[in-house]
Amino acid sequence: MNELVFFLNNVVISGLVIGSIYALGAVGITLIFSILRFAHFAHADMMTLGAFYAFFLTAMFPAVGPAIGLPTAFIMLPIAMALTAVTAIYLDKGFYRPLRKHNVKPIVIVMASLGVTLMLQGLIRMFMGTSARNMYIDDRKDIFRIDLPFELASRPLVITDPQILLFIVLIVSVISLHLFLTRTRLGKAMRAMSDNPDLASVSGINTDTVVKVTWVIAGCLAAAAGTMLSLDVTLKPDLSFHLLLPIFAAAIVGGVGHPYGALVGGFVIGFAETLSVFNWSILLRPFRDYLWFDLPSSLAIVPTEFKITVPFFILLAILVWRPTGLFKGKVL
């Protein structure tokens, strides 16, 4: 039973956490692609930038969180989301919209997003350096240990405060996005523009407003994902390097242009990573007397340092087996 609890802590809970981060990032990727028709490679850097916005606000008002009983960075998250959304709008205004007005090919805008990526990475390193930062200043991360009602289980389930808040943020975000896309007039306009931009424009839909709302949603989700990940682990300037491939893989696995598919793709990539680096010998220890081979001390599919390769292999497999993704690349 202790081995099973170890599996729940290191695979199930960890998979849910990292899958939630990837899902929030992948939804922003697929929204931008479905509306603007290009892959936004700077999205992972927007996640990092949103986390640093939250860090700056936490450093300015460190006592807010302890007074309320929540992490200060989480209290400051709505402001960080708003700042990231404004930044995303001005990035579009300064770099992407002039290219769209000149009717350039999508690959040109993709290359421009690579330039924006390098620019944001340089700015982050210039102002914040290269060292890791702790999101907790006057408060600390709470760890909850839940004892299971099993006599043979001496290990508790372990879950942290930011992980619980992350699940709440994901649920609220998914429900809000679903209601927005299906119940509001602006959400239906986004779906129409995603389906046929030219027809949406001649039908009287304000495409500029739709584009701005798309960047607002993508920026808010990026800031939420980056901040919640930094709360759970640590804030690093190179956070985008570890997030870019997984969130793109999640968007493609779920079906590019399909926001609900991006959610599923995020959890597929998240659980694939945790399952691949899990030490399966621990789970097999109760059965070692019945195995026909000597159980090694470490039995993982890939070493932890090569975890970043897992989304790449899944991405290749999906492109070969089902190029349209699990949800056939439907639009909004």
Report on this model:
The chain has 332 residues and is mainly alpha-helical. It has 14 helices and two strands; from the N terminus they run ααααααββαααααααα. It has helices at residues 2-36, 43-60, 64-68, 72-75, 77-101, 106-128, 161-183, 185-195, 197-202, 207-232, 239-254, 259-277, 280-284, 309-321, and strands at 143-146, 157-160. α1 (2-36) packs antiparallel against α10 (207-232) and α2 crosses α10 (207-232). The longest helix is centred in the N-terminal third of the chain and has 35 residues, at 2-36. It is globular, with a radius of gyration of 21 Å. The N and C termini lie far apart (44 Å). 40% of the residues are buried.
Q: How much helical structure, as a percent, in the residues? A: 55-70%
pLDDT under 50 segments (min length 5)? none
The main sheet comes to: 2 strands, antiparallel
How far from one another are the termini? 44 Å
Mean pLDDT: 88
Spatial shape: globular
> Treating each run of at least 4 consecutive H or I residues as one helix, how many helices?
14
Radius of gyration: 21 Å
Would you count the extended β strands for me? 2
Q: Give the SSE order as H and E letters.
A: HHHHHHEEHHHHHHHH
Biggest β-sheet: strands ordered side by side in the sheet: 1-2
- Content-based structural category: mainly alpha
Strand content: under 5%
